[in-house]
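Sanity check. The docking grid for pyridoxal-5'-phosphate depends on where the pocket ends up, so I'm generating a full predicted complex first rather than guessing from homology. Inputs follow.
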Amino acid sequence: MNYHLNNDHELLAALGLRPVINAAGYPSRLGGTRLAPAVVAAMSAAARTFVPIAEMQARASELIVALTGAEAGCVASGADACLTLAAAACIAGDDLAAMDRLPDTTGLRNEIVMHRAHRNPFDHALRIPGGRLVEFGYLGPSSGVGAYHWQMHAAFTERTAASFYADSPMGWVIDFKTFAAISHEHGVPVIVDAAPTQLPPENLRRWVELGADLVACAGGKYIGGPAASGFLAGRRHLVRAATMQQQDAFIHPEVYQVPLEETGAGPHEPPHQGVGRVLKVGREELAGLMAALQLCGSRSYAEERRQRIALAEQLIAAVNGLECKGVTANSSDPSNVVTITFASAQDAARTVQALQEGSPRIFVGNTRITQREIMVMPHCVTQEEGKPLEDGLLRAIAAIAHGRGKA
Ligand SMILES: *Cc1c(COP(=O)(O)O)cnc(C)c1O
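Predicted complex below; grid placement will be based on this.
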């Protein structure tokens, strides 16, 4: 089959679009992950039909509970959206007037405690509902034991609303179990950014088991759902507060039903449209994410890994087989990312550029260009794309080696 002439490419060409090969992982700039047929089918079924969003959220909560072991869950437009909802829930709780006031946090607890090394380009989400980030600890393994506990204790005040932990492998940050225990000593819920957490689902369950109160997960990465979806898993009262600030509450109080309500406790009137209203998901995303969550229970993670390894090995053999001076490929990463090292950062950058402008266009990981590396990520590459990807890489690298600059 000609790579360019399948039906999807024709449909997109009719919209004036030119598809690319995604060898960059699950980046938002390429639209997340590839959706399984069952996920696409659920999305198109929902697109043609109506289901109350509140009922979809309630059912999604059950699926999230089954996958993560949390008490409840809700769906928003991404992991970052879920972090915004999580912060909003910790700041306002189930106080309807406080929800209405956000992002003005006058009189409310709004400080969010985190290790300095966990600051990251996504944590703006915590500030959107009025959260104020309070950092402790140092950058770097200064003591060899992570941050000292006293450093973390000292960060809590009567204004602390939550603490925050990012899933990133940094040895000098307090381990998560201790982090959660210290937070709970101060009576403060723990928010986790688990967007980069890989499956199998035990990895998500571990956050909950070790004490996370709210875990934000991306739908469009390892879960295999739509890019504009993500879910929050956690304590029932916090998830309820989060979802109240997101769902359309344009409902007469007489017929309003509080989400996730069982106990009769908490508010019974609807809030106004909350800060989470801008993070809404449609029924297509909800249905797609729900189908993906269901699949997560039965996917063969070992087989998926085997396929990634096979492609990685194919690409490594091909690139090293070129015997291009200064260019080597290897993979040491557990997620089977192929790292290609160049003689200079400029060569790496020019290769990325050449790949993006080639035919077919190929997008690879570009965050390590300064280290003279490009990263070829097999996660979203289909079997049919394997050969065009290999050929494109070889053309781009050969062109660099011959100093022509472009493939
Ligand atoms: C991808 C990512 C996010 C954002 O996830 P979305 O679902 O795209 O909103 C947040 N934090 C980290 C660390 C991520 O890697």
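Relevant for the grid: The two ends are 23 Å apart (CA to CA).
Also worth noting: Residues 28, 78-80, 120, 122, 166, 193, 195-196, 218, 220, 230 surround pyridoxal-5'-phosphate (CB under 6 Å).
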